[in-house]
Structures are given as C-alpha cells and as structure tokens.
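Milestone M4 deliverable, item 7.
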Amino acid sequence: MASSEADVLRTVLDRWKSAVDAHQPDQVASVFTEDAIFQGLRPYVVGRDGVAAYYAAQPLGLTAAYEIRETRRLADDAVLGYLEVEFGFTDRPALRVYLGVLVRRVGGAWLIGHYQVSRLD
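Output delivered:
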C-alpha cells in the first residue's frame, strides 16, 4: 500500500523537527540527501555538511512547528511539499516562514533533496 504524500512528508519532517528541537545538527543533516540543495535564510549550501553547519549555528532552544499546506506526488519516488513553519526562540519572537521541500526516496528512505525557505510578510 502506497503512503499518501502528506504521510511521506510528515514522516520526514517529524524526524527533521525532532532533531531541530533537540539541537542535533548532524541528525538534522541525516534527514537530507547527500547532494541536497538547502536554502535557509542565509546563502544556500549543497550537501549534508552545509546543512549540519547551518543548524549548528542556530541558537539553543530553537524549535520548529510545521503545518503542511499542499503536497504533490511528482513520481513514485518524489513528493513536493509546501508548508508553513514557525521557528521558536527563547530570546526573541517566533519567526514564521514558508517552506518548500522536495523529498526523494533514496534506497528505502525518504530524504529531503531540496529545501527553500521564504519569509512570511
């Protein structure tokens, strides 16, 4: 039985959220493909090392809460997701962003191959 697009995204993003909330940059990076294109709120990076460095630089206490807005299955092994994410901080107001992700099945695992953040206005 095939998983729904939303189920696929939730599975991947729950692992991402758990690692972000626990401030475990290497675990965050493990949710991404080896060649992932990652665009946070700073210049983009490619690959897990860049993702780990990005999250290592984030403050302790950072949390992520997400809501899936749209999904599309592009192929058997590719799902596109559009989300709204709120990043919480201990010392300043939360930051709300839009997040576009492309998750790919690599071997038996679903991983993020593209991650693009845009600020909410």
